[in-house]
Amino acid sequence: MEDTYIGAIDQGTTGTRFMVFDHAGQVVANAYEKHEQIYPEPGWVEHDPIEIWENTQSVVQAALEQGGIDATQLEAIGITNQRETTLVWDAETGRPVHNALVWQDRRTTDRVEALQDQDKVEWIREKTGLEADAYFSATKTEWILDNAEPLKLSTSRTQDLRDRAEAGELLMGTIDSWLIYNLTGNHITDVTNASRTMLYDIEALDWDAELLEEFDVPEAMLPEVRPSSDEEFYGTTDPDGFLDAEVPIAGALGDQQAALFGQTCFDVGDAKNTYGTGSFYLMNTGNEAVSSDHGLLTTIGFQMSGEPVQYALEGSIFVTGAAIEWLEDVDLINNAAQTAELARSVDSTDGVYMVPAFTGLGAPHWDGRARGTIVGMTRGTRKAHIVRATLEAIAYQTRDIAEAMENDSGVETTSLRVDGGAVKNNFLCQLQSDIIQTDIARPEVDETTALGSAYAAGLAVGYWDTIDELRDNWQVDREFEPEMTADDADRMYARWDDAVERSLNWATEE
Length: 510
Hints:
This protein is an alpha+beta fold. Helix content is 34%, strand content 22%. It is globular. Pfam families: FGGY_C, FGGY_N.
């Protein structure tokens, strides 16, 4: 196997990456390209699916060229993706009917509030494990079918999108489906992505007819749901296509489940937190779908070929890394690396709290109308205080989730595996350890999202035989232990709820 590899397409919120891994789980090639963030109105976020597909082809070719690897040396490709981001496209032409609506998009908040008024929240939660929220794909698909400009069938006439969807002429999917379709011609998703649509019954493991009726989404437009690691493959790349090779597409996981898999959290109680644009804290609950009383989501963790689904509890935080990007956007920092230096330059925030609710608040608050707030400023507040408050907000939001996770699962977190771009920041990792009073383990390969999808694809084609081989690959780069006393951590955390309270239900005009 020295001359063969597994590839992973990691299609994220801000860009697309292709990584190539060897049998030891080490990166041998890596290329990345950003795509445009489109904000048509306040609270609306879109991506151009064509740009994403073009960038995907570009980074795959760039990584292979950089690594001196021929596509025929890839035994399989796995896909991981920004979850919930939703698009609808023409089955014949492959052209999207509208930009993709991104998971952060809040345009369907009114629709969600109507569901709340109709007392349908618990009904949805029982079937899907999810909160009724604009975050998920159901209301996004409904909006596209109701509001996208009809496709022009000729120069003189148009046809209603819903009629075409009923006839199976339009396809709906999350970004994994879009990439699988373009790579293989097949309309397929995996169980983890299906579980994030708010249209899928996570215990019956099927699209739910009542939910499809509620959101007026025709079943004919939905993808086939397959295991996350699929020995039957989702299809193969076109030997006459951009790769000039027939490579199996054999694994897919939503990005947070992929990180759970890449962190080898295969046992009940194993937990990880990924710090990307948002942060997502997942704990493996095994074959049991544990319901939450504390604002967490019950979701599908992964499924391997011929095996039962493994479930997870999830705390979804919408904005963490994006808060650091905001600091850069408003010229408080020049680059993300500067945050640690500025934060260390002051002993505390001097009472400043920052709530980065730029796109509402996720778990455990679930307020789509919350907005970003800075409180506690005085004339003596400097940018270092605001920067430090932003890093502390990331840690506080994670503690919110950690406490809810322990209350729901009954399992005390003793060590948390972390990954994502922000964990390169040692100051943040130490702060996180202090605030939640838990050891933090950062792995050598911190791009565990891509690694997880590579593992899923590699297991499907026999590149790795067992998950024990994957456990052996996992290596700690650095561990962080609490240096702050529990009393000091509690004191800092005590006013966080007060700050959050001031951010709630702000965007009442949207």
